[in-house]
UniProtKB/TrEMBL annotation:
Listed name of the protein: DUF7683 domain-containing protein
Lineage start: Bacteria, Pseudomonadati, Pseudomonadota, Gammaproteobacteria, Pasteurellales
Protein source organism: Haemophilus haemolyticus
InterPro entries the UniProt entry points to: DUF7683
Cross-referenced Pfam families: DUF7683
All copies of domain DUF7683, residue ranges: 5-58
Domain of life: Bacteria
Length: 76
């Protein structure tokens, strides 16, 4: 069985162009621990968000002082 890889994908709000795709080593059971979910079921791929405090845990400084919305995708 192949290992499932998960990615954070951030798209431009203006052009819908993929700006960045980052592989994350978060197990499906840990998603809610590290990332604020907009959905009740973290197995459903959808829109998630990180606020400034959560971004700082990943070493990211958000100059807009707002949350960043993104998708979590997965592939084998």
């Amino acid at each position: 069985m192949k290992k499932l890889r998960r990615y954070i994908e951030i798209y431009s709000n203006v052009t819908d162009e993929l700006l960045v795709r980052i592989e994350v080593k978060i197990d499906k059971n840990q998603i809610k621990k590290y990332i604020t979910c907009d959905l009740d079921d973290p197995d459903v791929l959808g829109v998630y968000s990180l606020n400034n405090k959560e971004l700082e845990c990943f070493g990211i400084i958000n100059c807009d002082n707002g949350s960043i919305s993104f998708f979590i995708t997965s592939e084998e």
